């Protein structure tokens, strides 16, 4: 918190953004139902201005973006001038005040072993190629320091991951190789060593090796026993890159209150996704989830995950990555303090990245690279 307080300073003036507008009903259409309270479209322009100013000083660190897989299916695209075929491009990143972007390395169902590793490597290469082709806007980053450096230079920090654990091929050597290439986050699902019974011996060794390297564990979609055991084994903070509150919406990837409390107590981070399936159809629904996670887990445990360019629809007023000022304006209307908002957008992600970096430095002094294999530990 002390580091965050040092970062708080008067925000620079931010550019204006046109107000969003609701679709106008056609002739003969039934009237729109009354709003329980003013919609985002009716927010006072002062709130939107405050939101943009706050984001100019404390931009969004977006925890999950599916752009790498989306770009694989396009024969041509222009992210610098704008690309209508995707939800994410440079103009909309700027409008949304995004300062860091975690690029998900998607693996389709049924890809394992060499196929999974190869597909992951191809996406990592694509992300780096795109970022290096736009040096005035994007910068590849790993860890807290380089992420902050990119933001301070006016670039969007581009981080690799989360990647599914199937990308490892059950090999800690491949984990080390992916880390060398920049992998930041690994999702502990879809593998035999992280399942309904929790982590196996090889799973625990994998988490320890991730700690040594500085690769953060993502537990979204993981079984509750895996979540609990990872919280016990990991010395670094963990993430849930796409989890909202199950008390508000019973999606399997959303977290019940007891796990939210455990995550907060362990210094982890729940990054609430902006999807209708997990949070609801309006920006107010997203804000409800953020309120709930903050109440149960604490203000240091809540973050944002746009989940753009991934399967699924997004709430009204948040249709692409440019919509973050509208969400922040809604939270300001609800009474969120600027300190809590600065934690939500940027500070909490930086804290987790710093925790991963610190744990890696400390662990490397007392632990050599693991030579364990799944055959030796789990039979």
UniProtKB/TrEMBL annotation:
Protein name: Dipeptidase
InterPro entries assigned: Metal_Hydrolase, Pept_M19
Annotated region described as Disordered, given as residue ranges: 1-38
Compositionally biased region (Pro residues): 22-37
Membrane-spanning parts: none
Database matches in SUPFAM superfamilies: Metallo-dependent hydrolases
Source species of the chain: Streptomyces glaucus
Pfam families with a match to the protein in the record: Peptidase_M19
PANTHER family linked: DIPEPTIDASE, MICROSOMAL DIPEPTIDASE
